[in-house]
């Protein structure tokens, strides 16, 4: 057999006839295999692309949030509450049948926690500005509708600064940082990142292009594991867990929440993101108490 015969079959009619017969018999299998391989490749790319898109909030059961805060006076220029006044206020709360528990945290403890949280996302300016305020009494309601009774009772308490419902800390343990996006609320109108996004002469909500640029910048940061997107509807849903009657003055803003493989790597997020167009601010996600 010559080299040409070895390479091309040497024109053997029996071999060519067998090959044509085999291909004819298996043509459907060959086509099906090619289709499956093409779809698998397309599906793999689709899943890859999807893994880089912001994910919806984790699907977990939600329940009413019954915590509230009573802040004692302690701000600069205002006479601070004494230890005795704080103890009197605490005793008043503990005696109320609408309250199931009360925990006290000093103003210094609060300031230290804020400082550590801002340092954790690389916001040194806010970390250094975390000065102590008044002591805070963290209480838990028996029912959500009992909060007005707390407000009324605290009118007679000595040296109370504010009484408020505590916000739902849904994202504790699920993310290290929140990126609040420009919307139509007061904070958005005042934020430099929103004034850069003017539409028809007025500050407007974040655009899809700006959101895409923020996501791309986030994926460039080391250790970013998951990016979640909380739309305004979900933000309102969470707010109503603590205050069923809550009605915002303007539509709530959307936010990205970012989970890092190592929480220490979150220090890069504020310097990289806070000045981008479409961003109101970058906030730390506080840990659970």
UniProtKB/TrEMBL annotation:
InterPro entries: FtsX_ECD (IPR040690)
Membrane-spanning segments: 29-48
Annotated region described as Disordered, given as residue ranges: 103-135
Keyword 4Fe-4S: no
Signal sequence segment: none
Claim: Membrane is one of the keywords in the record: yes
Composition skew (Basic and acidic residues), residue ranges: 111-128
Listed Gene3D superfamilies: 3.30.70.3040
Keywords recorded for this protein, A-Z: Membrane, Transmembrane, Transmembrane helix
Protein name per Swiss-Prot or TrEMBL: FtsX extracellular domain-containing protein
């Amino acid at each position: 057999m010559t080299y040409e015969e070895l390479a091309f079959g040497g024109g053997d009619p029996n071999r060519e006839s067998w090959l044509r017969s085999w291909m004819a018999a298996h043509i459907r299998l060959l086509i099906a295999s090619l289709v499956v391989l093409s779809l698998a490749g397309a599906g793999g790319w689709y899943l890859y692309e999807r893994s880089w898109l912001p994910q919806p909030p984790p699907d977990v059961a939600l329940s009413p949030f019954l915590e509230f805060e009573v802040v004692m006076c302690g701000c600069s220029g205002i006479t601070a509450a004494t230890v005795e006044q704080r103890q009197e206020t605490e005793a008043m709360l503990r005696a109320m049948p609408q309250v199931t528990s009360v925990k006290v945290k000093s103003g210094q403890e609060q300031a230290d926690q804020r400082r550590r949280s801002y340092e954790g996302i690389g916001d040194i300016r806010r970390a250094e500005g975390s000065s102590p305020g008044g002591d805070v009494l963290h209480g838990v309601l028996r029912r959500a509708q009992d909060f007005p009774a707390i407000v009324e009772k605290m009118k007679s308490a000595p040296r109370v600064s504010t009484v408020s419902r505590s916000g739902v800390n849904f994202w504790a343990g699920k993310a290290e940082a929140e990126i609040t996006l420009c919307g139509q609320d007061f904070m958005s109108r005042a934020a430099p990142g929103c004034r850069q996004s003017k539409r028809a002469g007025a500050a407007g909500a974040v655009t899809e292009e700006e959101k895409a640029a923020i996501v791309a910048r986030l994926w460039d940061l080391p250790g970013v594991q998951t990016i979640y997107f909380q739309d305004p509807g979900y933000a309102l849903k969470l707010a109503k867990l603590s205050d069923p009657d809550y009605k915002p003055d303007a539509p709530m803003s959307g936010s990205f929440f970012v989970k890092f493989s190592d929480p220490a790597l979150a220090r890069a997020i504020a310097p990289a993101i806070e000045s981008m167009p479409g961003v109101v601010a970058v906030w730390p996600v506080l840990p659970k108490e």
